[in-house]
Amino acid sequence: MKLYGIMVFHRETTVGGRVKIMKWTFDLSSFWLIHRVGAQDTMGSLGQLLVERNRVPSMSTLQDEGYLTHAFIRVDGLCGVCVTDAEYPKLTAHSMLATVLDDFTKKVDPTRWGLINGSEDCVYDGLREYLKNWQSPDNKTARLLPGGMDESDHFQAAIDESRIVFHHSLESLVEPGETVDDMFWRNPKSVPFGEAPIGDDGALGKPGRLPKPRPECADMLD
């Protein structure tokens, strides 16, 4: 199982409300070096699209090319997104996101959310620790918060897995009269992290398509 990245977005709760990135962190060491920037850009774009195209509040998971993108959208518009491999449990991912958003709210006052225009503007520093500790979702010792509590158990008990909207492909996010290419490239706010994704051969890849991780035996070559 692999957890590749965690992102925090904020979505205005009005119809068609703007979505902006608040904070992100990634572990892309399992990708070839040449693919990492493209993989991060694509993960960010997929996460933002999932937040934009699901209701407030909601829980959703998008499956695409062997990856899962999970979005937990709260009633106040704060959104947690993570990208995992297909083996990572959906319920665990959403429980982790609920825990992240609760911690974020405690450490970043909601009155300041409107002043944040990117990850550099946000002082929250908890994502990297969550990314490290949740690589093994069954390792509860690693997930203990200060004071010895694992609040994820509380959130997992409160989450009804049947309420997680499951999107089987990118095409399920496409609106009438739109193509996947349109969804990515005709809407600039859907590409918040950089340029086009990079394909397996180092060339520009298809919109929304993540490169494949490198084989584990290739670690010594990077």
Keywords for this entry:
palmitate, SNAP receptor activity, membrane, Longin_dom, globular, alpha+beta, Longin-like_dom_sf
Secondary-structure map with pairings?
Elements (H helix, E strand, L loop, with lengths): L2 E9 L7 E8 L9 H17 L5 E7 L2 E7 L4 E8 L4 H18 L19 H7 L18 H7 L5 E4 L12 H6 L37
Parallel strand pairs: 3-6
Antiparallel strand pairs: 1-2, 1-5, 3-4, 4-5
Helix pairs in contact: 2-4
Order of helices and strands: EEHEEEHHHEH
| Radius of gyration computed on alpha carbons | 17 Å
**What oligomeric arrangement do these chains adopt?**
single chain
Low-confidence stretches: 144-149, 188-207
Q: What profile does the largest beta sheet have?
A: 6 strands, mixed
Helix content: 10-25%
General shape: globular
The number of helices is: 5
Mean pLDDT: 79
Q: How many extended strands?
A: 6
Strand order of the largest sheet: 2-1-5-4-3-6
From the N-terminal CA to the C-terminal CA, the straight-line distance is 21 Å
Q: What percent strand?
A: 15-25%
Structural class: alpha+beta
Structural overview:
Residues 8-113 form the Longin domain. It is found in: Endomembrane system. Residues 195-222 are annotated as: Disordered. 25% of the residues lie in helices and 19% in strands. It has 5 helices and 6 strands, in the order ββαβββαααβα. It has a 6-stranded mixed sheet with strand order 2-1-5-4-3-6, with helices on both faces. 36% of the residues are buried. It has helices at 36-52, 90-107, 127-133, 152-158, 180-185; strands spanning 3-11, 19-26, 58-64, 67-73, 78-85, 164-167. It is globular and about 45 Å long. With 222 residues, it is an alpha+beta fold. Helix 2 crosses helix 4 (152-158).
